[in-house]
Amino acid sequence: MSSFWSIWITVISLFVIAGCFILLRLVSKNNTGVKEGESMGHSFDGIEELNNPLPKWWSYMFYVTIVFGVIYLILYPGLGNFQGVLKWSSSNQSIGTEQGIKADSKAAVLAAKENGHYVQYDQEVKKADDTYGPIFAAYLATPLEELVKNKDALNVGKRLFVQNCAQCHGSDARGGIGFPNLTDGAWLYGGDLASIKTSIMSGRNGFMPPKGGLPIEDSELAGLTEYLYQISGHEVNAELATQGQGSFMKGCFACHGMDGKGNKFMGAPNLTDNAWLYGGSRKSIEQSIKFGRSGAMPAWKDVLGEEKVHVITAYVYSLSNQ
């Protein structure tokens, strides 16, 4: 915070407290010229205003709040850049990527300890680690093949998924345009337990260049789209699809395979299962071919740790393997 804004906030905070005190003192004195208990000369609907002071308990309550406010601003941050006598802060996290936040936060935790700062977020994290750490350690020691049968672990994995993964994949894990559906069994990089865990731990980066980087003309796009529509189980224009097959053989098979069933080692989609990441209409397929597609899933190893990823893996696997 700049010096200007620090001074601005400090002045306003102290002015409000001082103003409350002055106002309370003014209304506590009888400056009306009318004796206490006598009429002020105002009445409405049979109700007459009398010159009565504030109840003592009410005045004392206001004084207590003013004193509390002063003590609070001395102990805790609130006056601009002043950190408070207790050196308390709510969090040490910065704004940025998840990975950047995690790295910055770890450094800030160490710095806070060295400088004697009390960071509430750090204390809550430590308490949570002390409480739930042994539970997650036990889950990590359990093979995934057994963990997927543990209902308690799957419930924990579901909550972790909703907290961290639902932003992209949806709370029901059915994804959306550009975000994989995790319940349909169509896996770009493999749907076995080990592959799913690797995907979550290390992240994935998918990229298809425009027209696959192949010498495919715009005039061929309609035929190629029709061919892909055909191998995914739709009724099509057979003649146009045959022309598109020739375009496919120019090199699309290098990633997607001769039969179009993809390559999980490369993350190349299976084009025959009718599970389209960016939409399965003719228009969407043609746009994918013409302009290419790219997507990235961040690595969660350093954000959540292997213990939590282990549990999320079991939950995600259970969604398509009941």
Topology:
Elements: H1 3-27, E1 39-44, E2 47-50, H2 56-75, E3 88-89, H3 98-115, E4 118-119, H4 120-140, H5 144-147, H6 151-164, H7 166-169, H8 193-202, E5 204-208, H9 221-231, H10 238-248, H11 253-256, H12 282-291, E6 293-297, H13 301-304, H14 306-320
Parallel strand pairs: 3-4
Antiparallel strand pairs: 1-2, 5-6
Helix pairs in contact: 1-2, 4-14, 6-14, 8-14, 9-10, 9-12
Family: Belongs to the CcoP / FixP family.
Transmembrane segments: 7-27, 60-79
Protein name: Cbb3-type cytochrome c oxidase subunit
Provide a descriptive summary of the structure in words.
Helix content is 53%, strand content 7%. With 322 residues, the chain is mainly α. Among the domains are: 98-140, no CATH class; 146-320, Cytochrome Bc1 Complex, Chain D, domain 2. The strands form three sheets. It has a two-stranded antiparallel sheet with strand order 1-2. Mean pLDDT is 89; it is low at 95-99.
